[in-house]
Amino acid sequence: MSPFVIDIQDLVFQWPGKHGFRLSIPQFLVRRGERVFLQGASGSGKSTLLSLLGGVLLPQPCHLRVLDTDLTALSSSARDRFRVDHVGFLFQQFNLVPYLSVLENVLLPCRFSQRRRRQALESAVSLEQSAARLLDQLGLDVTLARQPVTALSVGQQQRVAAARALIGHPELIIADEPTSALDAARQAEFLDLLLGRCDDGNVTLIFVSHDQRLGSHFSRTVDLNELCVTTVP
Ligand SMILES: Nc1ncnc2c1ncn2[C@@H]1O[C@H](COP(=O)(O)OP(=O)(O)OP(=O)(O)O)[C@@H](O)[C@H]1O
């Protein structure tokens, strides 16, 4: 097994029909269990890179291995399967499903992935117990579990989104500015809880933020501008 959860060599990506932006990364390696703080100027391609790591986007032919899987060799549906089985996504806007309850939102990955369902049940008697435990560990009052998710505050919704990303022990968590809606005190508190959960599961975390103060919580800071080769397309 490779020691690297992310192993990129000579990656190039351009949005179809869009000139002026080109992501070009000669090498990017992330070891199992690392917590990487990814920063870079607005528009430098951080979210684009996260989508490539999650198999949402495909680059030009290159070496792109995530969790020992060659993403460039997978079909679109196989990449979808890979993503739901192995990657927890945390978004800036949370992307919760507004007509579902808190619990139903957290359990969504288990609906789509047998692997996540099985792993969630390894340490709990039911999926609901697994979800409730995670919510509790992330500081959410579990009596809210049956509430519509839209009835929760922004900070509470963020904990729901984090529990959804973590349920069923995905090996890689990809977080795209998940703390930007919170004030500084809540950001630090949330980050500590998220990192604590990642430590417990030996999870690898790639975390994007513009807030450089958060960088001290991570094992490594990577600046996308330094990672990239800047060439005129
Ligand atoms: N769906 C898309 N279609 C076409 N171009 C896109 C798309 N998404 C992003 N881009 C372009 O790709 C470039 C990089 O955008 P991206 O969102 O990855 O940067 P970013 O570093 O995450 O920015 P920010 O920090 O502002 O969120 C930008 O020029 C953007 O306009």
TrEMBL record:
<feature type="domain" description="ABC transporter">
    <location>
        <begin position="6"/>
        <end position="232"/>
    </location>
</feature>
<keyword id="KW-1003">Cell membrane</keyword>
<dbReference type="InterPro" id="IPR027417">
    <property type="entry name" value="P-loop_NTPase"/>
</dbReference>
<keyword id="KW-0547">Nucleotide-binding</keyword>
<keyword id="KW-0472">Membrane</keyword>
<dbReference type="Pfam" id="PF00005">
    <property type="entry name" value="ABC_tran"/>
</dbReference>
<dbReference type="InterPro" id="IPR015854">
    <property type="entry name" value="ABC_transpr_LolD-like"/>
</dbReference>
<protein>
    <submittedName>
        <fullName>ABC transport system ATP-binding protein</fullName>
    </submittedName>
</protein>
<keyword id="KW-0067">ATP-binding</keyword>
<dbReference type="InterPro" id="IPR003593">
    <property type="entry name" value="AAA+_ATPase"/>
</dbReference>
<dbReference type="InterPro" id="IPR003439">
    <property type="entry name" value="ABC_transporter-like_ATP-bd"/>
</dbReference>
<dbReference type="GO" id="GO:0005524">
    <property type="term" value="F:ATP binding"/>
</dbReference>
